């Protein structure tokens, strides 16, 4: 299961705890414990969705704003947007 989690997160670059739990049909706490294994190895880092998230309205599910990022240099990052294609003209 840890290998599947590694492959999923490395392929996506980052994902929320809720997305990971849903993908693997796990309780979020179980998913968090699995992610902690990779964090101890230095392969995963925990991030917040935004600096203000969780301090203002408190309406979001905490699992939706708890993000995990695979730290491998080759993994894509979900926060980067590709530049729009240039059109000739």
Features:
globular; Arc Repressor Mutant, subunit A; 89 residues; alpha+beta; 3-stranded antiparallel beta sheet
Summarize the structure.
The chain has helices at residues 2-12, 17-24, 28-40, 62-65; strands at residues 14-16, 44-48, 66-70. By secondary structure, it is of the alpha+beta class.
Helix and strand topology:
Blueprint: H1 2-12, E1 14-16, H2 17-24, H3 28-40, E2 44-48, H4 62-65, E3 66-70
Antiparallel strand pairs: 1-3, 2-3
Could you explain the architecture of this structure?
The protein is of the alpha+beta class. It has one domain: Arc Repressor Mutant, subunit A. Helix content is 40%, strand content 15%. The protein contains 4 helices and 3 strands, in the order αβααβαβ. The protein has helices spanning 2-12, 17-24, 28-40, 62-65, and strands at residues 14-16, 44-48, 66-70. Strands 1-3-2 form a 3-stranded antiparallel beta sheet. Helix 2 (17-24) crosses helix 3 (28-40). It is globular. It starts with a helix and ends in a 19-residue tail after the last strand.
Largest beta-sheet details? 3 strands, antiparallel
Low-confidence stretches: 75-86
First-last Cα distance: 51 Å
How many E-type strands?
A: 3
CATH evolutionary superfamily: Winged helix-like DNA-binding domain superfamily/Winged helix DNA-binding domain
